[in-house]
Amino acid sequence: MPKRIIFPQQGQVILEDFSLPPMGAEDIRVRTLYSLMSIGTENIILQQKYAPDTHFAKMFAFPQLKTGVQAVAEVEAVGNNVSDFQPGDHIYMRKAHGSHQVVPAANCSLIPAGVELKSACWAGLAKTAFRAAWAGRFELGQQLLIIGAGPVGQMAVRWAAVSGVEMIAVVDLCEERLKHAQNGGATRLFKGQVSQKLEEIRALNSGNGPSLVVDVTGNAEVFKQALAATGRFGKVILLGDSGYPAEQCLSSDVMTKGLTIQATHDSHDRDGWTQRRVDELFFNLVRRNQFSLSNLITHEFLPIDCEQAYDLANRHRDQTMGILFDWHQANYV
User: Fold this and answer.
1) What is the distance between the alpha carbons of residues 152 and 278, in angstroms, rounded to a whole number?
2) Which residues contact 41 (CB under 8 A, 6 or more apart)?
C-alpha cells in the first residue's frame, strides 16, 4: 500500500496509507526514491506559525496532506499522451512526501546522467533561490549580502557564486551554516545578528555598504536590519516567506537612502523561467561541478521515523541543513 507523511493536526506528524488517483493520459506514475524536507516552510505549516489573514492560512489547513515540495522518483508507467518520459527514467517533481505519486508529466523534469539522485532533491530550493538571483540580477562585480544561511540561503550563495558576484557576504547565527556558505562560495562571513555586525557590514564595498541585500529569514526584525545594512540607492530582496507579513514595517532608511524593495516567491515564473527551465540549468551546473552541494544533506531518515525528523528540525535547527527521507528501500506497494 502506498504511504505518505501528513500533518493530522498542529504539531503532529504521521505516516499513513493512502490510495493513488487513477492515471490520466497526460500523467506519469512514479515510485519515490528520496524526498527533501523544506525545513522552514514545512515547519511553519506544521506548527501553524502564521497569521489568520495570510496566504498560509488560505492554502493550508489540518489535516494537511501536502507536506513536502521536492522529491526524486523512478517512472513506473506513463499515460498515452506522454512522450517526455518512459519507465525507468529518474525524474524530479514538486510533490509531497509519499512513496508513490501520480503527477502530470509536464510538472516533472528529467534528471540527467551524472547528477547524483540525492543531490537532485535540492532542485526545488534551488529554484526558490533562483527567484532572488533573477530579481537581483546577480552579476559580475556585484556587492551582495545574504541574511540567513539556511537551505534557501545556501542555494542563493551558490547562484551568486556561479553568476560571478564579486562579494558574497553572509550573516547567520550558526557557525556550521556559515561553513556551508563558505564551501558554496561565500567570501565574507558574519556570525551573529545583522544589528551586531552593522558597522562592519556598512564598511563593505569601500564604505558604501552592500548594493544588494537578500533577506531569506522572513523575520520582521531582520527586515528592519536589512534596510539599515543596505547601501545608498541599494535594493532589498525579500525571499523569506513570512507567516506574519504585517509585522514587516518600513524604516526611515527606505526614504533617506532611496532603497528599492522587491519581494520574490517560488511561484513567480517570469521571462520564461519555469520550473523545468530552472531545473535544467541547475542540473547542468551540478553535473559540471559548478554548483557545490557537498555535505549539505546533514540527516537521513526512513519515512517511518518522520516524527523524529520533524522534531529534530524544530528543536535543533542550528544542527540541520538538508533532512532527507529515504523511500527507495521501503517495501511499499
Assistant:
1) 15
2) 69, 241
Alpha-carbon distance of 253 to 217, in angstroms, equals: 19
Instruction: Give the domain ranges of the chain.
Output: 3-122+296-326, 125-263
Q: Is the pLDDT of residue 45 over 60?
A: yes
**Structure confidence at residue 322 (pLDDT):** 96
Q: Indicate the CATH number for domain 125-263.
A: 3.40.50.720
pLDDT tens by residue, 121-138: 999 999 999 999 999 999
C-alpha closest to that of 172 among 318, 295, 323: 318
Whether the full predicted model's pTM is greater than 0.70, yes or no, is yes
pLDDT of residue 180: 97
Question: Which residues in the chain belong to E strands, given as ranges?
Answer: 3-6, 14-17, 27-36, 71-78, 90-93, 100-104, 108-110, 143-147, 167-172, 188-191, 212-215, 235-238, 260-263, 297-301, 322-326
Grid cell digits, residue 212: 544588494
Order of strands across the sheet with 188-191?
188-191, 167-172, 143-147, 212-215, 235-238, 260-263
CATH class of 3-122+296-326: alpha beta
Task: Return the CA Rg of the chain.
Answer: 20
pLDDT band at 107 (very low <50, low <70, confident <90, very high): very high
